[in-house]
Amino acid sequence: HRDLHSFPTRRSSDLPAPIKENEAILIASGDLRLSANQTCWAAQEDMEKRVIKAFKKEGITVRRGHPYDAELKHGFIWNQRMGMDVFRGIHPEAKLIVAESVWQYSHHVLAGLRAHRGPILTVANWSGEWPGLVGLLNLNGSLTKMGVEYSTIWSEDFTDEFFINGIREWIKTGKIKHDSSHVQDLKKSKLPKAERALGEALAAQLQQEKAIIGIFDEGCMGMYNAIIDDELLNPTGIYKERLSQSALVAGMRQVKDSEAKKVRQWLDQRGVRFVTGSNEETELTDKQILEQCKMYIAAVRIAHEFGCAAVGIQYQQGLKDMAPASDLVEGLLNNVERPPVYHATTGEELFAGQALPHFNEVDEGAAVDALVTNRIWNAMGLDPATTLHDLRYGEHYKGKEVDDYVWVFLISGAAPAAHFIDGYAGASSERQPSMYFRLGGGTLKGVSKPGEIVWSRVYVMDGKLHADLGRATVVTLPKKETERRWKITTPQWPIMHAVLHGVSRDQMMARHKANHLNVAYGAGAESADKALAAKAAMLNAMGIEVHLCGDVQI
Fold this sequence. Notes:
Elements: E1 23-27, H1 34-57, E2 61-64, H2 80-88, E3 95-100, H3 110-115, E4 120-125, H4 132-146, E5 151-155, H5 161-173, E6 183-185, H6 193-209, E7 211-216, H7 230-233, E8 238-243, H8 245-253, H9 257-269, E9 273-274, H10 286-305, E10 310-313, H11 327-333, H12 364-379, E11 386-398, E12 403-410, E13 428-429, E14 451-461, E15 464-474, H13 479-487, E16 495-500, H14 505-511, E17 516-521, H15 525-541, E18 545-549
Parallel strand pairs: 1-2, 1-3, 3-4, 4-5, 7-8, 7-10, 9-13, 15-18
Antiparallel strand pairs: 6-18, 11-12, 11-17, 12-16, 14-15, 14-17, 15-16
């Protein structure tokens, strides 16, 4: 990887190139990891050609705002400084297209987008191959938080009516208006009395007693949208303990091999299948698993030491060069039934019989959500196991049991065994892809069980905290279809097949202000409806503006 300052830059005396009415500039934000940018470049290049061709048919010449780098073998903006320098050469009133077919670090381009005065369009290809849709939603959530106006659109091949009509509207007006009729602001007077009373009581308790979320280094992978300023967060009763991932590594070094082996034995006894080999560079090894078990123990001990109600491990960037992936750890933390962890001195079992909510990639919107879910679900006698997922992809599936649009909710970590068919016995642990995770480490992989869930997202918009809540049904697809969906996304990761209630694909994409959403199971449809109502009441009482999405029964 080249030095951050070794790419060509413009002189301060240079002026941005003039822009014509029938021209637009295209940029592509990428990963910070060279291996990821190189591996994903072919998909990005193909997508850009299709986008440029579509705009050409509408009379708009699209030119790239930065060149392909022959030495790096990709054409992405791969760090923040480069993004700033690229924008120095872009006219501030130019029509600007941000094209994404990969995971991207939003902060690479946020400085330029914050100051840009021309119309901005974010575009993604509808594909699960690389997390381009996830990257798009992260960028959209970041722009929303910043208060920067933008339009957004997506397409399978950039020739469909939805896409063509959208770009025509953007070319003509500088905006694309999507259907948001599925969103309704919460009217707390309509909440059922019992659930409203419960939510408001738990909110009052939280604001009185307060709670701490442990942040193992803030701001993962450019996720500006996943950082909630203290001034917005603290009035809810939630405060941050800013922890260092170096302290986590130090804590791992204090864990004895014998303690870590007991965690592994516990998982083996419950039927987790570890897919291991001997090549550290490409396979999951027993050594990597042992280090993950040490991380699990260290995380629980640190959470106890600082009185945390939930914790989030950033993992990337720094920790990826120090330890195997945190994903197995995250899934264990989010489950009520998990390997016991004892205080290093007193021998007391820590958080006994409890899930210790973990918010993947230190997504603080997910942290607030997970903490609230934990309290509501526990109070209602429901399993509080919760996780966030990427909105990775989706397709309509037509079969004997299911004939509907089925989303692929997918995440590398944090998914608890309680969500899986057959629990731990239905779970495996497979090595993380080496292009992202050099030192390996396994996930906690499984297929989510059928059932009724509540989905939700806490985010920042207009300088305030907001929350979108909805309902969905997790369905079972044939094994062959599940394997196909895994193969076209990331087969090492846990998967959930979800059918949203009353929210179309395009409505979801247009509205959602994050790459993640939180999910938790009810005991059935009625139970999930009541849990959603109580959660809405608690979030509202915490001062968060609540919006109900799709068919919600309250």
